[in-house]
Amino acid sequence: MAYQTIRQEYLQIPVVTRSYATACVLTTAAVQLELITPFQLYFNPDLILRNYQVWRLITNFLFFGPVGFNFLFNMIFLYRYCRMLEEGSFRGRTADFVFMFLFGGLLMTIFGTFVNLVFLGQAFTIMLVYIWSRRNPNVRMNFFGLLNFQAPFLPWVLMGFSLLLGNSIIVDLLGIAVGHVYYFLEDVFPNQPGGGRWLKTPFFLKMLFDTPEEDANYNPLPEERPGGFAWGEGQRLGG
Predict the structure, then answer these.
(1) Largest CB tally within 10 Å, which of 169, 213, 232, 238?
(2) pLDDT for position 54
(3) How many domains does the chain have?
(4) DSSP assignment of the chain, as one string?
(5) Can you give the residue range of the structural domain that contains 38?
């Protein structure tokens, strides 16, 4: 009975969020069990180009470090905000969501080459948080019960928290920068005088991922509850 309940809850998670979160958990589990090592996963342009270890282009986004606070913190935010984006502004637009993943991953890979970052998963999480926060500017956030602020400040609060933990903020800045590039090209520039839509989802992605039918019984995760935890709760102003 418990297995059926867990399985049902798992399958209710949107497909992109479910796939990415599962891949991250399985990758971390494989490292913990010493089936693989982080040295086989990290981003290394030389090994990719010279030794054709192309899997590193993907695996460096799947590992957040050994199981601990940093891993749990990143996974909670990854799951929460990835799911709310997929069920919110990308509802019924799975191909566009996948294209956002590809676009963001490509930019981070290019930038990561110059700033010498070996794992980009945390930056990718910050990118998701940034895009969600800019698309939900009226949501009031509460962080650890200590800070109250508008949603667009959430990525910067997370960067400050990362700084307090002694982590490098380059990763956070990269996620914010890539998130802003996507947000500007997708949401801002097309609405400017003389602007246009530069980001267009390839047709083959739409053929692969978009389905014409809507599930009438689908119950999306409400975006007005962005945190769900003491470190990220919020409510929409005027609601």
Answers:
(1) 232
(2) 95
(3) 1
(4) -HHHHHHHHHHHS-HHHHHHHHHHHHHHHHHHTTSS-GGGTS--HHHHHHS--TTHHHHTTT---SSSHHHHHHHHHHHHHHHHHHHTTTTT-HHHHHHHHHHHHHHHHHHHHHHT-S--HHHHHHHHHHHHHHH-TTEEEEETTTEEEEGGGHHHHHHHHHHHTT--SHHHHHHHHHHHHHHIIIIIGGGSTT--------HHHHHHH--S---TT--PPPTT----STTTEEEETT-
(5) 1-209
